[in-house]
Amino acid sequence: MAKEAQLRVTPEISAMFETIRDWVERHGRIWQRRVLYELVSHQLVPDTSEKQGSRVNDIFKRARHQELIPWEWFKDEKSVQKNVGMPRLESFDQFFHRVKDLYEVSTKHTQNSYIEIWSEKTLLQPVYKGFFRGFASKETIF
Fold it and tell me: Would the pTM of this model clear 0.85, i.e. be above it?
């Protein structure tokens, strides 16, 4: 296997690292695709084209391998389990009592109107995480 060329950290690349470090500090781990979107929104990358995506992926991959940035910043959607707020329970009784404590009647049934926002893009969840509550497949606010 050929050895990767050393990544030369230019001011532009340093600014990319700082942008993603700030995002991770605010929101937690980040998907690689989200890295590209953040860099475009901060005008550090011109667009979301395949060429730019490959360039950004290569920079961050080499930076991780060279330990310039931590692996822990990144997550893979397929390897991340959703945290639904339920600790591991050892028995059905524990489960039953936990569920009983969490049960509540939906407030949408007592209101004249409500708003539903549906998104299939898990990538967007950190953007609206603080504003909405709901489930893994949909986020709702009443």
Answer: no
